[in-house]
User: Fold this.
Amino acid sequence: MQFSSLQNYVILLALLCGTLTPAGCLNFSYPTFKDKVDEKDFIISTNSSIAMGAIRVTHDASQASINNESGRVLYKKPFRLWSGRNKASFNSTFVIKISNETNPGGEGLAFILTANDTLPEKSDGQWLGIVNANSNGTAQIVAVEFDTSKSDEQDLDDNHVGVDANSILSLKQESLTSYGINLSSGRDYNVHVTVLYDSQNLTVFVSNETGEPMKLSLALDLSHYLPEKVYVGFSASTGNKTQLNCVRSWHFNSSHIHEKPNLLWVWIAIPAAVGAVMLAGVASYLYSRRRLEKESLEDAYPRIEEEIQSTSMAPKKFKLKELQRATGRFNPKNKLGKGGFGTVYKGLLGNKEIAVKRVSKSSRQGKQEFIAEVTTIGSLRHKNLVKLIGWCYESHELLIVYEFMPNGSLDRFLFGEGKLGEETLGWQRRHTIISGGSTSTRLSSQWMREESSSPRYKSQQHHVRLGFHCQAGGLWTGSYPSAK
Ligand SMILES: *[C@@H]1O[C@H](CO)[C@@H](O)[C@H](O)[C@H]1NC(C)=O
Ligand SMILES: *[C@@H]1O[C@H](CO)[C@@H](O)[C@H](O)[C@H]1NC(C)=O
Ligand SMILES: *[C@@H]1O[C@H](CO)[C@@H](O)[C@H](O)[C@H]1NC(C)=O
Ligand SMILES: *[C@@H]1O[C@H](CO)[C@@H](O)[C@H](O)[C@H]1NC(C)=O
Ligand SMILES: *[C@@H]1O[C@H](CO)[C@@H](O)[C@H](O)[C@H]1NC(C)=O
Ligand SMILES: *[C@@H]1O[C@H](CO)[C@@H](O)[C@H](O)[C@H]1NC(C)=O
Ligand SMILES: *[C@@H]1O[C@H](CO)[C@@H](O)[C@H](O)[C@H]1NC(C)=O
Ligand SMILES: *[C@@H]1O[C@H](CO)[C@@H](O)[C@H](O)[C@H]1NC(C)=O
Ligand SMILES: *[C@@H]1O[C@H](CO)[C@@H](O)[C@H](O)[C@H]1NC(C)=O
Ligand SMILES: *[C@@H]1O[C@H](CO)[C@@H](O)[C@H](O)[C@H]1NC(C)=O
Ligand SMILES: *[C@@H]1O[C@H](CO)[C@@H](O)[C@H](O)[C@H]1NC(C)=O
Ligand SMILES: *[C@@H]1O[C@H](CO)[C@@H](O)[C@H](O)[C@H]1NC(C)=O
Assistant:
């Protein structure tokens, strides 16, 4: 990892820590509801729907019976209501239309905030889809109810608004009658509602289309009743008395809250992240160092091909695979000899016998020597000189391919091996071999030229000398160059 990318990583980490607190605020606006299209935005209970441009919280009248029903429609995404001591504020504005199906209608509709998106069973009738007999008093829910039925003795009347928390018992309620508002007057009119929460007080404004709004306000700490993340939406119910519970438009926005960072988390996460960064740094440093080492090994012999191919009589370049196949993967059985430079293997290239000199990795023979050997021996033509066929440099393998000499090294013929019956060559014969008939002059002059023009080849003189081989008894024999 480079310093700049490490820096970026740290900055990214800092940013992540800063925004650990996903705002989770909501801002949406439905001036009207599009059938089908908007359904995907909501969690809709069985008997609820979006139809005819409105949310129908309970069944529409077209159904055979709409008695004893409850329903819930929640906005799909919850929002963050509070975190630590930070509390969100919101503004929920909607238009409801309640049409009595009986005389009078029932039971009511409510704007709700809840963490539970599941409609409670048996929450019909007086429960308004808010709670049921079991969860009344324990459920985590806050509701602003628009009650059209005095189903409980605690209810003010059959036309009131109330604020409920955890139960259907209203913390505060207000009749709408004196404000000229009749929730289910039987006339087709809209009730406009604004529910404002400023993190301390909950305020509800209710009005008919034309008149002054009724205002109900109470101090309410929603974090006392609700978890941090809640859904917003509507619930409604019918009982023996029925009505159509519609929401015709809805605008909602809530504020961002800066989540109080969990310090424990931070104290664990930051050292962990720093540790991870350092580990990553060390790992990447080691990795890049290893890579550098590897690269420098590879770079030890750069442009080896260029240098070889630039000589006039460039020998053939072999693929490592070919030579591996030819020598049976450098099978020890095919070993012809071993020296300080490495090992010579016998191989079969097509039907042609070859000798492959494999420069050992520990050998001092470097690139220059390798190139010198390939180019000088490769460009020398002497009938008594072992013929260089090609070379290979791949995967750190330096390989030189010679014609195969069945009789072994020239040394044996020059110096013998001290074995009985093995004769050394006589001086006369040695001369004949070296002069090689008519080619001798050409050989020496060419060698002289190479020698003088390439001072770096000086050390090769020795090798070339040993590269000569002799014809003894009609059989070729020779020493592979630089065997000493
Ligand atoms: C909320 O959404 C409305 C459009 O629906 C947009 O005009 C308004 O700028 C948004 N407000 C914020 C605070 O994102
Ligand atoms: C509605 O439920 C009540 C019990 O809560 C029951 O007495 C009544 O018959 C039901 N009404 C209808 C129409 O099913
Ligand atoms: C849904 O409506 C059907 C038919 O009116 C009724 O039987 C059922 O109880 C209702 N479900 C709920 C959860 O209100
Ligand atoms: C709602 O959004 C408006 C601007 O779109 C903004 O002025 C207002 O403060 C927001 N209300 C809340 C409760 O965030
Ligand atoms: C609440 O939202 C409604 C509709 O978006 C807007 O008319 C009203 O001014 C807002 N009230 C406050 C206090 O933000
Ligand atoms: C709704 O209530 C009014 C009186 O308040 C009544 O005249 C009307 O018939 C009721 N509607 C239905 C469908 O029962
Ligand atoms: C959500 O409400 C349903 C129905 O009342 C209930 O079965 C379920 O246990 C509640 N889930 C949570 C997490 O309170
Ligand atoms: C609902 O619960 C509240 C508070 O726990 C209680 O005062 C009220 O009587 C209950 N209502 C019913 C109908 O059980
Ligand atoms: C609401 O309107 C209906 C029909 O006009 C009437 O019967 C009922 O008494 C009214 N309710 C109130 C609380 O004024
Ligand atoms: C909440 O209401 C109380 C009294 O109704 C008032 O004193 C207080 O200033 C209000 N808080 C805010 C934030 O408006
Ligand atoms: C709306 O309310 C006002 C009082 O604020 C009242 O005078 C008026 O008659 C009401 N309009 C309807 C259509 O109910
Ligand atoms: C509903 O009506 C039935 C009779 O049809 C009655 O027995 C029952 O008590 C009523 N339920 C309520 C909650 O009013």
In short: The radius of gyration is 48 Å. The longest helix spans residues 263-299.
